[in-house]
TrEMBL record:
One Pfam family matching this protein: LRR_8
Name listed for the protein in its UniProt record: Leucine-rich repeat-containing N-terminal plant-type domain-containing protein
Record has Membrane as a keyword: yes
Signal peptide, first to last residue: 1-21
Biological source species: Vicia faba
């Protein structure tokens, strides 16, 4: 019994040390890998969040500064951005994308000690290093590698071909990177499971057209291919376009018919190239397209009606081409369409053929500017515009959803749409689902602006400029509480600027120039920020910021009450002013006559009573003499 108590006493004395040491055994992370992570990030500078997000606006939504939360002596498997194998405890994932790191990765970096890595994301950091410093062969288990926008330079080393387990390789937007044909070919031969290949923006001038065969080795697995802005030759691109397993394709050069028959293609982005000829004439009834972007090419001819078979289409951007046709009203069948951009083509005619009670029910961006459409504005289309449906009290921007496509293991792909907003052309790389714009400018529309536009509670931009619209600016526009840009310039609008527009607290851009508007310019709030340019070409406008003041002649038409009060007395202020003027001139003339000739008898009769009797000269002398004598007697 005594021995038992002694052992119990010793155990209780040493229990804290046992418990503390045992807690260290609960760490999943290996000590050497924890040290390697800390040493890897130590030499880097970390930029401030504001300057960082300005540098990478299209690739990074937020700045988390994950490495600042890493604490030495804690389990690295719990660190933000670090993933460990739940059994072995080895670090298998490192996600430092958009971390704001600045520095150089040298060959002796402890990053290369993490030999069990399967996922490595260093995208959108300013690493500014020669790519041959990067020891790719130290990561034999790597399946996902993202070095997008890292400022790497030089020729990609052949060691990259050792990454035989790769399923996704992203080297986009490293403009100083270049490929040797042998390196690329060997990589494609070894990485037989490759599904995603993003090489856009890298230099592939040395890759010959007849080397396309190595891509066909992956025809059953490769689903996403981005070779835009790589300098590939046209024959090369034409063969790539017909890879049968492709789901997403970003290229440049002519469009063969085969792209319309891809059974799995969901994203086809061929924008800003020199594609010519016509669109593929027959899209498959099994079309799976979610996004078709052929913006800024040289395509012509008609729009194929078979495109209506792509029932999942969300984004259709055919802007800046030479397409000559009527408005494709048959697109109303596409109930999922969010973005429709047909700007700067040769489309013409009326927009009036309504086939559904609610056409385009999900449309948020509608841009048909720069065509030859005529007639009235398409009010029926506007009534079903999705920008009306969002609650104006819908909450803050932190809950915004984005038009993304959760494809290929939840990879996020951004849609790119060019719109004219706030007076400038802007390219939207990431489109909020709450972002709504209408641009029908530079056409031949006529008639009134419908009151229904006031129901667009979610609209960010409205551009109806350079048409032949008449009538007044609807007062209902004051209800467009989220509006940031309003352009009604170069029309034939008349009347006053509604005071209700001063309720638009987010309005940053206003252009009402070159119309027939009159009266006072509303004052206060956002209207105090606009310059003369917003109102020029309206000779009837007055008030700040114009130099023309609002005097009586420039004021707005009088109210009915004022008109009634003037008519009650039979005349207004103008006859009274004329009367005052004439009376003043008459009075001056009469006074001058009195000075010369004395008071007229008729005037004295009116204002002075009976005239005094005239005294004869002799009597006046006698009276004078008498008074003089009296004065002399008194003096003596």
């Amino acid at each position: 019994m005594g021995w038992f108590l002694m052992w119990l006493h010793l155990f209780l004395i040493h229990f804290p040390s046992f418990s503390s040491s045992s807690s260290s055994f609960n760490f999943l992370c290996h000590h050497d890998e924890s040290s390697a992570l800390l040493q890897f990030t130590c030499p880097f500078l970390q930029v401030e969040s504001s300057s960082f997000l300005n540098s990478y606006p299209y690739f990074c939504d937020e700045y988390l500064a994950k490495t600042k939360t890493w604490i030495n002596g804690t389990d690295c498997c719990s660190w933000v951005g670090v993933t460990c194998d739940t059994i072995s405890g080895h670090v298998i994932g490192l996600n430092l994308g958009c971390e704001g790191l600045e520095g150089v990765i040298y060959p002796n970096s402890t990053l290369f000690h993490l030999s069990h890595l399967q996922i490595l994301n260093l995208s959108s950091n300013s690493l500014s290093a020669y790519i041959f410093y990067f020891k790719f062969d130290e990561f034999p288990s790597l399946t996902y590698l993202d070095l997008t926008y890292c400022d790497f330079i030089g020729e990609i080393p052949s060691q990259i071909s050792h990454l035989s387990k790769l399923t996704s390789l992203r080297l986009s937007e490293n403009n100083e990177l270049s490929w040797k044909e042998t390196t690329l070919k060997r990589l494609m031969q070894n990485a037989t499971n490759l599904k995603e290949l993003f090489l856009d923006g890298t230099n592939m001038h040395s890759v010959r057209p007849n080397s396309i065969d190595f891509l066909f080795n992956h025809s059953s697995s490769l689903s996403t291919l981005n070779l835009g802005n790589t300098g590939l030759r046209r024959n090369f691109k034409k063969r790539i376009l017909c890879l049968p397993s492709i789901q997403e394709l970003y290229l440049s050069g002519p469009i063969p018919q085969c792209v319309a028959n891809f059974p799995y293609l969901q994203v086809l982005d061929l924008q800003v190239n020199k594609f010519h000829g016509t669109l593929p004439s027959k899209f498959s009834q099994y079309c799976q397209l979610h996004e078709l972007n052929l913006n800024d090419n040289q395509l012509e001819g008609h729009l194929p009606k078979s495109l209506s078979q792509c029932e999942y289409l969300e984004v259709l951007n055919l802007g800046n081409n030479k397409i000559e046709d009527n408005f494709p009203d048959w697109l109303q069948t596409l109930q999922q369409l969010n973005v429709l951009v047909l700007r700067d083509n040769k489309l013409n005619g009326l927009i009036s053929n309504i086939k559904f009670k609610h056409p385009f029910p999900r449309l948020m961006i509608f841009d048909i500017s720069g065509n030859n459409f005529s007639g009235l504005l398409p009010t029926t289309y506007l009534r079903s515009f999705q920008g009306r449906m969002i609650d104006p009290q819908g909450g803050d921007n932190s809950n915004l959803q984005y038009m993304d496509m959760q494809l290929l293991n939840s990879t996020l792909f951004y849609d790119s749409v060019s719109v004219r907003i706030k007076g400038i052309n802007s390219t939207l790389v990431k489109i909020s689902r709450n972002f709504a714009t209408i641009d029908m400018s530079r056409n031949k529309f006529e008639g009134d602006i419908p009151d229904v536009v006031g129901e667009f509670h979610a609209l960010i931009g409205l551009n109806l400029s350079h048409n032949s619209l008449t009538g007044i600016i609807p007062r209902s526009m004051g209800n467009m509480t989220t509006l940031e840009s309003l352009d009604l310039s170069s029309n034939i609008l008349s009347g006053v600027i509604p005071a209700e527009l001063s309720n638009l607290n987010f309005l940053e851009f206003l252009d009402l120039s070159n119309n027939h508007l009159v009266g006072d310019i509303p004052q206060g709030k956002q209207f105090n920020t606009f310059s003369n340019d917003s109102y020029e070409g309206n000779s009837g406008l007055c008030g700040l910021p114009l130099s023309k003041k609002c005097g009586p002649e420039q004021q707005s038409p009088p109210s009915p009450d004022k008109l009634w009060s003037e008519e009650k007395f039979g005349f207004g202020w103008k006859p009274v002013a004329i009367g005052y003027g004439c009376g003043f001139v008459f009075g001056i003339g009469l006074g001058y006559c009195m000075f010369l000739f004395g008071k007229p008898r008729w005037l004295v009769m009116i204002f002075g009573g009976q005239p005094k009797r005239r005294v004869k000269r002799r009597t006046r002398v006698r009276m004078t003499n008498g008074s003089t004598m009296d004065q002399m007697i008194q003096m003596s």
